[in-house]
Amino acid sequence: MINETYREMLKKKSVIRELSEAATERGKEIGYENVFDYSLGNPSVPVPQRFTDTMIELLETKNPMELHGYSPSLGIPSVKEKLAKSLNERFGMDYKPSDLFMTSAAASAIAHALRAVTEPGDEVMIFAPYFPEYIPYVTGAGCKIVVVPADTETFQINFGKMKELINPNVKAVLINTPNNPTGVVYSEETIKTLADILRAKSREFGFDIYLISDEPYREIVFEGVVAPYVSKYYDHSISCYSYSKSLSLPGERIGYIAVNPADPESTTIATMCGQISRGTGHNCPSSIIQLAVAEVCDMTSDLSVYETNMNILYNELVSLGFKVVKPGGTFYIYPQALEDDAVAFCKKALKYDLVLVPADSFACPGYFRMAYCIDTEKVKRSIAALRKFVETEYPSR
Question: Which option is the CATH number for 69-295: 3.40.640.10, 3.20.20.140, 3.40.50.970, 3.30.70.20?
């Protein structure tokens, strides 16, 4: 017989992927340039030329077995040394290479971190709205999810509800800042308050609650906004990073876990990840990609287009009467729909070739997400469609 858990998952396909596929099909009819597809968070800016040059240089000068052979299960030592040095210089940390574990981007990093600091049956606390894939990450580790409802006024952490829900079964807390889907960056005050609560509850419960920080958008932060480095504020923290967004390398699937060196178990946790990989079939991210990102780890793509696109959309949404918290980073914006049923709202938008994502799967009904990682020219052309949609479907808004 086959696995019924995964059979059931087939009935719950990603709404984001389904909408993206619908946009592609519509594009075959009218030209994809005329479909205003805000569904999928796929970076739209090119990789830095330095990365491409590095790849070429590696291919021309390095031994093919070094580039294409299996990497060490914990990651290439010289790569981890460069990444630790970069993190220490940028964020005032004291990472050792042994505190890092190379992964297939942030998704894999989260999956490893969860398994390293929980046991099956434990609870993991997450904050709405959240990336829907957190559900299989947590349940795949054998854990249960505790969802803290959103503070929809600011989309900072709802600490009142968090204090009500945290309990001795919660062994880890998973956060995402800058945040998908809201674009909100947790403030230093938010991170400090979160750290204070976790320290107090750890003392009360008699064990260390781990803070797992999902950080693929760490470098996409807008003017006037400061993104605190989470691990500076809490000793028992694990940073899960991906180069998918900062270097526009989502297809290369490369990132890392960095366990706070202030945690006495930091090296143990990072080393344990090698054993977790054995049981999940993850072993050995690409050698050549590890070597290449190590040479450009302090660089980013030209990310400025995302702030340009955000300002265009934010100003238009506000002028049309939408309630929306202004993003501080990422390439997402998260307005409240003009009716209670965000699914119905987004279906109506399709008639105007606007592909928007209803927020029900983010555990925050009544909102929708726009991923504005598209050309600015297309964002500008979409404004007429957005206005027509609102004025036609919601004339008395």
Answer: 3.40.640.10
Q: Which helix (H) or strand (E) holds 267?
A: helix 266-280
**334 closest CA partner among 135, 179, 174:** 179
pTM assigned to the model? 0.95
CATH of domain 4-47+302-393: 3.90.1150.10
Residue with tokens 């403030």: 187
C-alpha 238/C-alpha 131 separation (Å) is: 18
Contacts of the segment 160-167: beta carbons below 8 A, 24+ positions apart? 162/125, 162/127, 162/197, 163/197, 165/125, 166/125, 166/197, 166/201, 167/123
- Number of neighbouring beta carbons within 10 Å of residue 380: 13
Query: Would you say how long the chain is, in residues?
Result: 397
pLDDT tens, position by position, 81-140: 999 999 999 999 999 999 999 999 999 999 999 999 999 999 999 999 999 999 999 999
Where in the chain is CATH 3.90.1150.10? 4-47+302-393
147: β partners: 126
Strand, helix or coil for residue 221 = strand
Segment 137-164, tens digit of pLDDT = 999 999 999 999 999 999 999 999 999 9
Q: How far apart are CA 44 and CA 375, in angstroms?
A: 7
